[in-house]
Structure formats: structure tokens, C-alpha cells
């Protein structure tokens, strides 16, 4: 075989895949990191670069894009091979079942002794609203992702949704926007308790049992009509931007034929992050096991377990416990 066979190939360069890549370097494994997007960082850079994160250990508050940058620096110190703009569509075993072969949509192939799948929510497809004017003004005042907070400066904003994204954006844009209204179709929110406490103590006007009925404007959003879903009463809001935080549709169709056991639209793993395919591990938002939390902090731990198991898989004589990171001080941190 002409192509290099890597010790470990990590598919998905979100926070969990980046941390797995660092760990692979720490365990002296020749690693490759592949992502479908043209940039590293997964949801942190693609969906909410300007949002603050408060629940990653060691960082009382950090912007998503800064956390991504730190993870990238940490991951790159052992010189992994990076392949961007490559959506993996096929995973199979070849050569007497010893090597795993990954094929991307553009026809490139990758060979590896082990694979860690950190695919997150797969391809990011925001859930859309079936209201004609919403589609017409998509990108002209209608947003699903916030990439640049400055466009909201001194504007009136409507946020639709009751999950973490909606609540986080309302809090993150407070003080930037002129005023913010958040509507949710129920009075039960899915956001963190602490964020909700902050929301109800903020200047954001929260309207429960309200839904979006119509968007106004020709070239750009100029207003919105919302309605009370208990009474049908309509209210007109003078807003220039509407952020729709209705969740993302997980598109995992592409892994259906990989032979992986799927549980609740996620890859089933055991406590060693092993999938049902020997040598194939998974970590982060893509997995499910009893007690799974889809958070960055839990994903980091899963990545460490997956990589240490992968090391042990290709070298059974190696210790499972990696030792402490200070036993392997990277060159750039060595004094003298
Ligand atoms: C608005 C918002 C706010 C959030 N706030 C927080 C927070 O405050 N704290 C917290 O802990 N979590 C938060 N989260 C959740 C957090 O972002 C995720 O838990 C985390 O990103 C999961 O990391 P991951 O590496 O598993 O997946 P992802 O970040 O989703 O990365 C997966 C990567 O895999 C790539 N990929 C997918 N399929 C393929 C394929 N077939 N081939 C190649 N590449 C592929 C994708 O392009 C992507 O880059 C938030 C999420 C959102 C949307």
C-alpha cells in the first residue's frame, strides 16, 4: 500500500476531536485529523465563535473562538496531519480486517490502524421555520448563527427559542443591542438553570407562549408579528434582526452504512468509548451511553479515554494509563 497507514485517525475537528488529537500526540501516535469544514473548531468556530462559554474547567469565562484557538495550538504541537474540506462518507476494514479505510466525498482515501469518530452533530443544518418571509429575508435580518455580534449594535432584536442557544444569545447580546425580546412557545425552557436565572434578572423581555407569525420588510427585516398561542392575540414588534434558535437537525444519514450500532440517533459506545467495530472509538456529541451529557467538558474526558484505548489496541504492551502530561513536556515548554 502506497499511502501512509496512520496509528490513529480522528474524524471531526470540533473541541473533542482537537483534544483527542493532542492526546494522540501525547501517546506518541502518528495522528491524522479530518474535517468536512474548511476550518478547525467544530461548533465553536462554525456556530458561535463570539459567544462566551462559562462551564469549561479552568476558564471562568472564555469566548468560543478563543477556546478553539487554544485547543488548536494544543492539538498541533505534535504535528498531526490535517485534512480539511473532506467529508468522510465511508468507513470499512481492509486487508484481513487489520486496517481501516476511510473514504471522503471527494474520493480521497485514508488508512489507519484505529479511528476515533468525533463527528458532533454531523453536518450542521439549522431547523428552519416554514414562514415564506423568513426564507425571503434569510441573511438579511434573519439569522440562525451569530458570526459577528457588531451587526446587532443598537438594534432591536427578536430571539425565538427556549434552549441554551436562545438564552445564551439573549445574554450575550445584552448591552450591545438596543433592546432584546425573547419569545418561546412554552413556559418550560431547556437552558441551563444558571443561564435562566441570569435571563430573568436581565433587561431582556421574555414572552412565553408566544410564536412568530410574520416577518415584515422588503430588503431587510423591519418588524415582526408574534402571537400568543393560547389566545391568538397578535403583537407587532419593531425589530431589525430576528435570531431563530430552533435547534439543529442532526444529519447522521451518512453513517448508516458503516456497520455501527446506533442508539437514539447517536453512536453507541461502552465505558471505554469502544463502538461495536474493533478499533473504532467515538467521543463527544456524536455518542450515547447511559448518563451522556452533550457538553464540551464531558467530551474532553471521553476523548482521553478513547485515545488511550486506541493506543492499547494497537500496542497491547503499552500502559493504559498514560502517565501525567508533565512526564512528556513538549519541546516549546522546555527550559534550557
Ligand atoms: C449555541 C450553542 C451554545 C453552546 N454552548 C455551550 C456551552 O456553553 N458549554 C458547553 O459545554 N457546550 C456548549 N454547546 C455544545 C458544544 O458546542 C458541543 O457539546 C461541542 O461542540 C461538541 O463537540 P464535538 O467535538 O463533539 O462536536 P462538534 O463541535 O459538533 O464538531 C464536530 C466536527 O465534526 C465534523 N464532521 C461531522 N461529520 C463529518 C464527516 N462525515 N466528515 C468529516 N468531518 C465531519 C464537523 O464539521 C465538525 O467540525 C453549545 C452549542 C451551541 C449550538
Automatic annotation (TrEMBL):
Residues 6-298 form the FAD/NAD(P)-binding domain. It catalyses: 2 reduced [2Fe-2S]-[ferredoxin] + NADP(+) + H(+) = 2 oxidized [2Fe-2S]-[ferredoxin] + NADPH. It comes from the Bacteria. GO terms for molecular function: ferredoxin-NADP+ reductase activity; flavin adenine dinucleotide binding; NADP binding. Transmembrane segments: none annotated. Its EC number is 1.18.1.2. Its cofactor is FAD. InterPro entries: FAD/NAD-bd_sf, FAD/NAD-binding_dom, Fd--NADP_Rdtase_type_2, Ferredoxin-NADP_redctase_2. Binds 1 FAD per subunit. Keywords: FAD, Flavoprotein, NADP, Oxidoreductase. Homodimer. Belongs to the ferredoxin--NADP reductase type 2 family. This is Ferredoxin--NADP reductase. It comes from Candidatus Chryseopegocella kryptomonas.
Amino acid at each position: 500500500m502506497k499511502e501512509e497507514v496512520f496509528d490513529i485517525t480522528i474524524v471531526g475537528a470540533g473541541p473533542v476531536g482537537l483534544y483527542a488529537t493532542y492526546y494522540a500526540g501525547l501517546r506518541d501516535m502518528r495522528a491524522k485529523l479530518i474535517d468536512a469544514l474548511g476550518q478547525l473548531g467544530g461548533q465553536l468556530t462554525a456556530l458561535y465563535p463570539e459567544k462566551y462559554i462559562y462551564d469549561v474547567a479552568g476558564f471562568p469565562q472564555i469566548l468560543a473562538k478563543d477556546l478553539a484557538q487554544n485547543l488548536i495550538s494544543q492539538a498541533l504541537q505534535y504535528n498531526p496531519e490535517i485534512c480539511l474540506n473532506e467529508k468522510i462518507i465511508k468507513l470499512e476494514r481492509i486487508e484481513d480486517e487489520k486496517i481501516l479505510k476511510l473514504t471522503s466525498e471527494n474520493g480521497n482515501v485514508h488508512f489507519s490502524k484505529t479511528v476515533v469518530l468525533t463527528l458532533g452533530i454531523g453536518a450542521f443544518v439549522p431547523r428552519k421555520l416554514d414562514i415564506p418571509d423568513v426564507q425571503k429575508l434569510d441573511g438579511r435580518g434573519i439569522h440562525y448563527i451569530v458570526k459577528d455580534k457588531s451587526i446587532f449594535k443598537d438594534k432591536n432584536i427578536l430571539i425565538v427559542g427556549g434552549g441554551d442557544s436562545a438564552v445564551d444569545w439573549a445574554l450575550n447580546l445584552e448591552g450591545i443591542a438596543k433592546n432584546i425580546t425573547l419569545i418561546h412557545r412554552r413556559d418550560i425552557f431547556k437552558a441551563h438553570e444558571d443561564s435562566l436565572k441570569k435571563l430573568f434578572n436581565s433587561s431582556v423581555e421574555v414572552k412565553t407562549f408566544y410564536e412568530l407569525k410574520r416577518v415584515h420588510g422588503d430588503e431587510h427585516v423591519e418588524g415582526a408579528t408574534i402571537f400568543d398561542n393560547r389566545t391568538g392575540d397578535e403583537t407587532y414588534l419593531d425589530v431589525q434582526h430576528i435570531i431563530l434558535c430552533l435547534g439543529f437537525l442532526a444529519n447522521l444519514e451518512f453513517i448508516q452504512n458503516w456497520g455501527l450500532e446506533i442508539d437514539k440517533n447517536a453512536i453507541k459506545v461502552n465505558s471505554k468509548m469502544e463502538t461495536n467495530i474493533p478499533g473504532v472509538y467515538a467521543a463527544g456529541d456524536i455518542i450515547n451511553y447511559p448518563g451522556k451529557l452533550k457538553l464540551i467538558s464531558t467530551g474532553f474526558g471521553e476523548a482521553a479515554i478513547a485515545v488511550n484505548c486506541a493506543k492499547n489496541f494497537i500496542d497491547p504492551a503499552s500502559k493504559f494509563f498514560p502517565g501525567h502530561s508533565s512526564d512528556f513536556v513538549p519541546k516549546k515548554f522546555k527550559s534550557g
